[in-house]
Amino acid sequence: MMQNPLLFSDRLPTVALLAGLLLAAGCAATLPKNVTPMDGAVLAFAEGDFESASRWAGRVADDTDAGLPVRAEAAWIAAEADLARGEDVKALRRYRWILENAPWSESVGMIEDRLFELGEIFFHDPRHESWFFGSRNRGVEAFETLQAHFRRSDRADDALKAVGDYFVSEKDWYQAGLTFEELWEEYPDSEWSEYALWMAGHTRWEASQGADYDRDEMLRAKALLEVSLTTHPRGVASKQAEADLVHVIEALAWNEVIVADFYSARGSSVGERLRLANAALLYPETEAGMLAAARLDAMGLDLASLRKDLAASALDNVKPGLRRFEDDRRSVFGFGY
Fold first, then answer.
1. Chain centroid, CA 243 distance in Å
2. Which residues contact 139 (CB under 8 A, 6 or more apart)?
């Protein structure tokens, strides 16, 4: 499965000669004077001595006095050796270094497969289940790195779906919503597009915490769910989207009534009237909307007149505000490498 690093070196003496030198010195010991760390790393890898290959190649990769082409070649060998010996975090760090510092390297084309493999390992391999740091976060890092650097890859949408599903499993609804919305926007032709659109709305609804909280997330959920039902009216997720939309609209209506009560308790009749008008005019078929209409009627206010009087309702303001914190989304650049 792994690329043989011998393909990257035109500097080697004959393999037989170098092998003899290393065997004489001991493959894990200090290199002979006439053998460079790179040559030692290449042969150590070919001989299956991945620990030595990682150590010697890593020395070259970390040498800031070496040229970038040489460092990139060494980083690839070190990464492959680390992956082979199960040092998955070290391998991920090396692959990312190549992508970010030597995107022209001939090894870049093979890193996509490695990132997907690492994402699966971090998410599913029992070896990582007990890590204190949380290896599944490393899975997110691997998959997001893949999507960021190989945006047109056939696996980029699969990587984002895996990340979104992980956030759902952790009930991290906000991050899940961002991920699924990105998946839907970036890959509209993906097999996951319909699922992603519904989940973008569903997770926004979950993140909203209900009628007693800020309505921004509910308004975004409503917009996404409406697009989902318009785009996929008979889709596999249409029933779930319809059910979510009912809950969202009811919660939005109650939010207006709750805020109206807040204004009423503080003697602000204007604020109370505006929010009741919002509930009654925007969500007339909900329980909260009908309650708001009844309260306005008791105040002697006519709904038809309120709709025409822009000063008597706040309909134009019922839209989500700026997306808070979304520029600070957990990303491939948030792990300190």
1. 26
2. 118, 119, 120, 121, 122, 123, 162, 163, 166
| 15 touches 45 (CB < 8 A) | no
Q: Decide: residue 145, CB within 10 A, 0-12 exposed, 13-18 middle, 19+ buried.
A: buried
Give 114: exposed, middle or buried? Use CB within 10 Å, 0-12, 13-18, 19+.
buried
Cα–Cα distance between 174 and 208 in angstroms, integer?
9
- DSSP per residue over 24-60, as a string? HH-TTSPPPTTS-HHHHHHHHHHTT-HHHHHHHHHHH
Q: What is the spatial distance between Cα 190 and Cα 132, in angstroms, rounded to a whole number?
A: 35
Token pair listed for 16:
């037989």
Between CA 183 and CA 136 the distance in angstroms is 19
Amino acid occupying residue 161: K
Closest to 146 measured CA to CA, from 120, 171, 185 = 120
- pTM, 2 dp: 0.79
Q: What is the dihedral of CA 242, 248, 249, 251, to 10 degrees?
A: 150
Longest dimension (CA), the chain: 101
Residue pLDDT, tens place only, 198-240: 999 999 999 998 888 878 889 999 999 999 999 998 888 899 9
Amino acid letter, residue 156: A
Residues 186-207 pLDDT 10s: 999 999 999 999 999 999 999 9
